[in-house]
Design a protein that fits this description.
Strand content of chain A: under 5%
Number of domains of chain A: 2
Helix content of chain B: 40-55%
CATH topology of the largest domain in chain A: MetI-like fold
Oligomer: heterodimer
CATH architecture of the largest domain in chain A: Orthogonal Bundle
Number of strands of chain A: 0
Number of domains of chain B: 2
CATH class of the largest domain in chain B: Alpha Beta
CATH class of the largest domain in chain A: Mainly Alpha
CATH topology of the largest domain in chain B: D-Maltodextrin-Binding Protein, domain 2
Number of helices of chain A: 14
Distance between the termini of chain A: 59 Å
Strand content of chain B: 15-25%
Number of strands of chain B: 14
CATH superfamily of the largest domain in chain B: Periplasmic binding protein-like II
Shape of chain B: globular
Shape of chain A: globular
Number of helices of chain B: 19
Order of helices and strands of chain A: HHHHHHHHHHHHHH
CATH superfamily of the largest domain in chain A: MetI-like
Largest sheet of chain A: none
Radius of gyration of chain B: 24 Å
Chain lengths: 310, 433
């Protein structure tokens, strides 16, 4: 019976409707997959954060907000790993995002001008972005080596003092940051270049006729019209810096985020708590706080920066 | 057309899968899984033991998973447990036992054959003393102690008798300073081309401080019940200042140069090195031509001999306990790999000393020029009860970095470390009382 009625209904459908139905059926597969692999674990993290969750144990007792209490207690201390993780993550964002976007904008403005071998240059800037972060991090680790690393060899050649780079609590964070900025820049450049192509040439021609200087052209035409790209990148790169993990674990001694916790990030701290100290519950509370942070920052950025588009 | 072809493929797949399960169902083999982290010599030794065990027990197959780097070992265990997979028998550092027991990951060793009487009579005292919450949870094949490694060529080159290693901390310091060479500013660690001694807190040197140096300076690392940190005393501070002075005052070496302190010694770039007997296997595998000797640790100001004893030990997991057939096979395997014969194979392959006293005659081991000093050390060794070994180690790594990189006073750095470690210990016991 049912089969038949279904058959009748299909017959009544137009071809276009059928197509849409099939599209939904095919889309359902990745959506179910996505929900199970990404959404469900994310929600599960909220649940775990309310438990004293030890992955090795058979039972996971409920502890309410104890993990959050501990988290804020750690943040309130003069010195703690959790506090360093949050401080460093904020430093990565505050330094990394503006430097990366300014450099990317400057480079894409130049790339937009050149014609000769322009593809080659674009590929060169984009290549790091598609290379494995771990591979790059290890290469940089070697470049930063004392004595034999390329950077110190160059310093030696020009008679400058050797630098400890990753082995100094002061220099380690900028050293890691340099790699992340360089690696992620390719992506920002591509977005800026696409944005620049969207700006009609006639605006520039009109500005030229009016005798506008290059600065004025940039200030009053290029920059405002690039705003959508800038907002997009600002949000995306902030999120990616907030979630930084791989370069730090690959570049620091035994992946500890040292020396003296000077490079540890919230995500690395989460990983260490979860898988090295087996405090899954506390680690989950860290991710929940990070989630709230990302959500908050994104909302603020979107509401503040997108106002300027008009 | 397409549909019938798809159906045909499906049919073949189903057939193949069911055949596979048929084959699987046919053999009555009990399969147990054994995990350890990847340490070349130990993997070889265990492979040999498994081969012997399987020959003796044709009904049991042991799957050996040693494909996990040290840094990821605990992560892999943590990831496997909720998934319901993982080892039936696992090799853990003795300092981790408490946290694995607390999680309910391990089950106590069965009375038969591992009765308290049997363990007390046949195993080294540091094993017999490792009861936790009134039970034995793990049993090792081998134990280790710390000793002094010295490079004979470097000592000879610097004008010392290559056969006379330092016997006191003063001599140790003198030789370390005299054998250091550099090609630039002597106060710049990065200009060192040959090291006298490089401390590595990530490696064994935090144990050297915790269980050896502080006692030789007349202090105690912990209170007798192990629940109060006492190493931030005047004596502890003097001992720690002595240890850090190699990098901050005498500039004899650092873990940051020459591929790390351990590799530097193995490669022949360091004169003096403090390490465990397992390093003998590393040297044999990576640089067999190294002209080195091993001696008991130098004595300190109070003339006392001390060393740190430790071991990797095998425990039975909750997973094995869930299935009687697997549990039986696991206990059999555990008994096999902790026999005296296994200890003998182990010492010859890895360099770690047999945990069973009967494994090799003590006389014979004591006479061995390389293993002798380690064996001698077992008699006066001590070990810290760790509540969280990696976190407690990190505390002393940070103290060291605070002094070397942050210019902090050793006593202040040690005070900070003691406070942090006390918090770890207090938290651990707070959950248990």
């Amino acid at each position: 019976m049912e089969e038949q009625s279904g058959l009748v209904r299909t017959k009544r459908m137009t071809l276009a409707k059928k197509k849409v139905l099939w599209a939904y059926i095919f889309l359902a597969i990745p959506i179910v997959f996505f929900a199970y692999i990404r959404v469900y674990p994310a929600l599960f993290a909220f649940q775990m954060s309310l438990h004293d969750y030890n992955p090795l144990a058979a039972e996971q007792p409920y502890v309410g907000f104890e993990n959050y209490e501990r988290l804020f207690e750690q943040l309130g201390k003069r010195k703690s790993q959790t506090k360093s993780a949050f401080q460093n993550t904020i430093n990565y964002v505050l330094l990394g995002v503006p430097i990366q976007l300014c450099l990317a904008l400057a480079i894409s403005l130049m790339l937009n001008e050149i014609r000769f071998m322009s593809t080659l240059y674009r590929v060169m800037f984009f290549l790091p972005f598609v290379t494995s972060t771990i591979a790059i991090a290890w290469v940089f680790r070697m470049l930063y080596q004392p004595r034999f690393g390329l950077f110190n060899v160059i310093l030696q050649l020009v008679s400058l003092p050797q630098q400890p780079f990753l082995r100094s609590p002061q220099q380690a964070l900028p050293s890691v940051l340099a790699l992340v900025i360089w690696q992620g820049m390719g992506f920002a450049i591509i977005i800026f270049l696409a944005g620049l192509k969207q700006i009609p040439r006639t605006y520039y021609e009109a500005a030229e006729v009016d005798g506008a200087s290059r600065w004025h052209t940039f200030r009053y035409i290029t920059f405002p019209l690039l705003n959508p790209s800038i907002v997009y990148l600002l949000v995306l790169q902030t999120i990616s810096f907030l979630r930084m993990f791989a370069p730090v674990i690959a570049m620091t001694e035994q992946g500890r985020g040292g020396p003296l916790d000077s490079t540890v990030t919230v995500v690395l701290q989460t990983y260490r708590e979860a898988f090295q100290s087996f405090n899954m519950g506390y680690a989950s509370s860290l991710t929940v706080v990070l989630f709230a942070l990302i959500l908050g920052v994104t909302i603020i950025q979107l509401s503040v920066t997108s106002r300027r588009i008009n | 057309m397409l549909r019938s072809r798809l159906l045909a493929i499906l049919a073949v797949l189903i057939l193949l899968l069911s055949l596979g399960s048929l084959v699987g169902a046919q053999d009555d083999m009990v399969e147990i899984e054994y995990w350890q982290y990847n340490f070349g010599a130990r993997v070889d030794a265990m492979n040999m033991l498994i081969e012997q065990f399987e020959a003796e027990n044709p009904g049991i197959k042991v799957v050996h998973n040693s494909d996990i780097p040290y840094a990821d070992f605990r992560t892999e265990l943590a990831a496997s447990a909720p998934a319901g997979v993982g080892p039936d028998i696992v090799t853990l550092y003795f300092g981790w036992i408490a946290s694995f027991v607390d999680a309910g990951y391990l089950v106590p060793l069965p009375e038969d054959p591992f009765s308290e009487e049997f363990i007390r009579e046949t195993f080294s005292p540091m094993v017999a003393n490792s009861k936790y919450q009134g039970e034995y949870w793990a049993i090792p094949t081998a134990v280790r102690a710390l000793a002094l490694f010295w490079n004979k060529d470097i000592l000879a080159d610097a004008g010392f008798d290559p056969e006379s290693p330092p016997t006191t901390l003063d001599e140790f310091q003198e030789i370390a300073i005299a054998t250091t060479q550099n090609d630039g500013d002597p106060s710049d660690l990065y200009s060192i081309t040959r090291q006298g001694f490089a401390a590595t807190m990530v490696g064994q040197n935090h144990h050297w401080f915790r269980d050896v140096l502080i006692r030789q300076y007349g202090g105690q690392p912990y209170s007798d019940d192990g629940r109060t940190v006492t190493y931030n005393s005047e004596e502890g501070c003097a001992a720690y200042a002595w240890l850090t002075s190699f990098a901050t005052e005498h500039f004899t070496g650092s873990n940051d140069i020459l591929d790390g302190a351990t590799n530097a010694f193995v490669n022949g770039d360091t004169a003096l090195h403090i390490d465990g007997s397992f390093r003998v296997g590393t040297i044999r595998a990576n640089n067999p031509d190294l002209n080195y000797g091993v001696a008991e640790l130098p004595v300190g100001p109070n003339g006392e001999k001390h060393t740190f004893g430790s071991y990797w030990t095998h425990g039975i997991t909750r997973r094995a306990n869930d299935d009687p057939a697997r549990l039986e096979a696991t206990v059999k395997f555990l008994e096999f790999i902790t026999r005296p014969e296994a200890g003998t194979l182990w010492v010859n392959t890895v360099g770690e000393l047999p945990a069973q006293l009967a494994s090799a005659s003590v006389e014979e081991l004591l006479m061995d020029p390389i293993l002798g000093p380690f064996s001698a050390g077992l008699e006066y060794s001590s070990a810290t009860f760790f509540v969280d070994e990696s976190a407690q180690r990190q505390v002393l790594i940070d103290a060291y970095d605070n002094i070397r990189l942050g210019g902090m006073d050793p006593c202040d750095a040690l005070d900070e470390a003691a406070a942090a470690e006390q918090e770890l210990i207090d938290n651990f016991w707070a959950d248990r009382e």
